[in-house]
Amino acid sequence: MAALGTVRRFFGSYSRLKNVQPSKQTPRCSVRLPRFSDPAVQDILTRITGLDLQKVFRPIKQELKPPTYKLMTSEQLEQAVHLASEEAKKRLNTPPVLPERKPINDVLVVDQILDGMDTAKLVFTDITYSIPHRERFIVVREPDGTLRKATWEERDRMIQVYFPKEGRLISPHLIFKEENLKVRGDRIISSVNVHAATYEDLDKHGKYDLLRSTRHFAGLAWYLVSARRVDGLIVDMLKKELLQDAVSLVSLFHMVHPHSESAQEAASQQAAGTELLKVGTNQTVRFLLLPPPPPTHTHTHTHTHTH
Amino acid sequence: MVHLSSLLLKTYRGGFVVIRLALAGHKQANRPFYRIVAAYNKRARDGKYIEQLGTYDPLPNIYNEKLISFNFDRIKYWIGCGAHPTKPVAKLLGLSGFFPLHPMTITEAERRRAKMEKTEAAKPEESPEEGQKEVEV
User: Region (Disordered) spans which residues (chain B) (predicted)?
Assistant: First the structure.
């Protein structure tokens, strides 16, 4: 939860930065590329995420309390279900997806005179209290004399040393090592790289269901759309017969990549609904849109189409 | 009655404020750790200081880094008030980029380089001699 708080604060400061500078787009497209926070995008993503009450209110480890039973009329039951769905929507608020931070490679000075003076790096941190962590000066003097800005990992470590935050460790937790990153429940994941690794893993194994009705589904969908690898997800949706969701996913893809072939085709044909699906998907997926083949062949078909 | 003011506010005749390294953690032997501190010149090295402005850890950590911190805002204030940094503090500030490089840093680097070159020149002379000795033996 602490990570969520910091992510929210970073998002807040990032949005302030965005307002100050005009957004830098590629000069060729005059239309602004949609960002994660656009209301249209958010709308689609919430629709895709779905609202499985059973899963959202799945019992998390809490103190054991004896269950309470209430006697209600059917009206009261409806109201209670309505309240529960509101609560579920609040819980499904996705943590904002930040653009991946670019690695810092800024060299300030090169002093060849100092080559070989010291065998260790010197890390200088500015501990002025009133600067936000993003703007703090953290520089490293290497043994070969170059003075450079610290990388993001070094920055995080130094900030944790001098301004410790509860629940954070100086070196990343063992969970976050690549080998150990398999699909685990919905624990809080804090950095974009970890997100990426988990989403890749999910994609490979086709386990979209694990995240379907959770807060992380929107992030997963956004990541796949940005990486242009939506095929697996579309296949999954079609199998589950969530046609509406598939349609919205394809329209989201077109919104984010307006220059791709399928988007241009769709625009020219002005397709909507299932037409959009046929346009937006490629050959292998279109197979699934055809009426199901006779039962003897279904087994082999599913094998060929899920990779 | 004891005049407490003279004990607490030791104003010195001709004393001035310095920014220097004070050894912290005096209970632990063989583990130095310095605080960068603004203190009166006449005070003991590890005694009462006016304000702490940073830290310096001379032993490298597991990532082979020596951690140094500076509160640049307050350092600027004290230098503005006329505090003198000592030689090691000035060197550290030079290495960090806040000050220009200290001349002694450059001199030490040059001396070290001269020494290295001398030892390297000495080695190639030694190894052909050793080779001859082995051949003879």
Answer: 110-137
